[in-house]
């Protein structure tokens, strides 16, 4: 059974940090690029960051560059999103996605940043 399970969300004050985790099972995780997306209230789901299957290349949307870091541990089938200097506009449900032809989604984890 394919699963992506996000964790690590919560409520944090502006300027704080959180680390999200995305744990995968049921497929060959190391062959998949993994992305973090987020959906803010009333908005579309947008790409935040992406990491290639071997973790060599990363991509960040401009609004999080220098604040967020995506990484992965293929031995643990897990991808992380370290989020620093959080802002109220980072408030959203964060989803991880694994893609390599097929595409899998997690259920999401809520991140709320208070001002």
Q: Care to describe what's here?
A:
The structure is a single chain. With 115 residues, the protein is mostly beta strands. Helices cover 0% and strands 57% of the residues. The chain has no helices and 11 strands. Strands 2, 4, 5, 6, 9, 10 and 11 form a 7-stranded mixed beta sheet that branches. Strands 1-3-8-7 form a 4-stranded antiparallel beta sheet, with no helix packed on it. The mean pLDDT is 97.
Strand content: over 45%
What integer is the average pLDDT? 97
Instruction: Report, as a whole number of angstroms, the end-to-end distance.
Output: 40 Å
- List SSEs in N-to-C order: EEEEEEEEEEE
Low-confidence stretches: none
Helix content: under 10%
Structural class per helix/strand content?
A: mainly beta
Radius of gyration: 13 Å
Alpha plus pi helix count: 0
> Tally of extended strands?
11
Q: Mind summarizing the main beta sheet?
A: 7 strands, mixed
Shape: globular
Keyword list:
mainly beta, seven-stranded mixed β-sheet, four-stranded antiparallel β-sheet, 0% helix, globular
Chain-wise SSE layout:
Layout: E1 3-7, E2 10-13, E3 18-25, E4 33-39, E5 45-51, E6 58-60, E7 68-73, E8 78-83, E9 92-100, E10 102-105, E11 109-114
Parallel strand pairs: 2-11
Antiparallel strand pairs: 1-3, 3-8, 4-5, 4-9, 5-6, 7-8, 9-10, 9-11
Outline:
0% of the residues lie in helices and 57% in strands.
């Amino acid at each position: 059974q394919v699963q992506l399970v996000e964790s690590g969300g919560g409520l944090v004050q502006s300027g704080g940090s959180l680390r999200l985790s995305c744990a995968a099972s049921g497929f060959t995780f190391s062959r998949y690029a993994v992305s973090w997306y987020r959906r803010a209230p009333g908005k579309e789901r947008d790409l935040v960051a992406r990491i290639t299957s071997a973790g060599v290349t990363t991509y960040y949307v401009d609004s999080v560059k220098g604040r967020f870091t995506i990484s992965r541990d293929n031995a643990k089938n897990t991808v992380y999103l370290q989020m620093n200097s959080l802002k109220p506009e980072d408030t959203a449900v964060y989803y991880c996605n694994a893609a390599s032809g097929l595409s899998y989604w997690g259920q999401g984890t809520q991140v709320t940043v208070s001002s």
